[in-house]
Amino acid sequence: MQLYKGHTALSGFRLQKTLLTIQAQCPSVTACSAHFLHFVDSEQALSDTQASCLQNLLDYGYQDTAQELSGQTLIVIPRLGTISPWSTKATDIAHNCGLGLIKRIERGTLWTFSATQALKQTELDRIRDLIHDRMTETVLTDSAQAEALFQIAEPAALEVADILSGGRDALVAIN
Question: Using an 8 Å Cβ cutoff, are 132 and 109 in contact?
Fold first, then answer.
């Protein structure tokens, strides 16, 4: 897996609105930033020309003129085990640009939080709930954990519950 950092994921207005929401839960947070992260799964390492082409494709979003923040980070990615619609389209575009080595591109958001003191786990948990949709997204603490985006699980065997003759007990037994 290769990692490409992109531009700011939110406009200044949306970022400020999110910061105010976070500060209501965690007053020690003084600033936050959100940048796109692109995770690329390819058959082999890309050549310099291919990597440059891919970097040009991934050059979008809001141009960030602010100074880079330092602090604690969280990474929001699509829910593990799914392929996002963004990924499907981005991978198609990469293939149409001659980057057939790429199996899949997925996008996440790197959130950085500056605070007056180190954030406690309970504060990070509150922030986590504010920056992602738990139905469609997963939050990671390290980009290396994103390798799980590209793991393909074997489907489980189909099991049938005979609820006509077994009723609720049949469901409980199979569950």
Answer: no
Structure tokens at 75: 């990474």
List strand residue ranges (DSSP E) for the chain, in order: 2-8, 29-42, 72-78, 102-115, 137-140
Name the 3-class secondary structure at 17.
Answer: helix
| Residue with the two structure tokens 């007053």 | 27
Tell the burial category of 39 from Cβ atoms under 10 Å away from its Cβ (0-12, 13-18, 19+). Answer: buried
Q: Give the Cα separation of 160 and 108 in Å (integer).
A: 37
pTM of the model: 0.84
Using alpha carbons only, give the angle 68, 146, 139 rounded to the nearest 5 degrees.
70
CA angle 39, 77, 12 (to 5 degrees): 95
Return d(Cα 107, Cα 110) in angstroms, integer: 10
Over residues 13-33, the pLDDT tens digits come to 999 999 999 999 999 999 999
Neighbours of 1 (CB within 10 A): 15
Closest CA to 30 of 40, 41, 22: 22
Is pLDDT above 90 for 99? yes
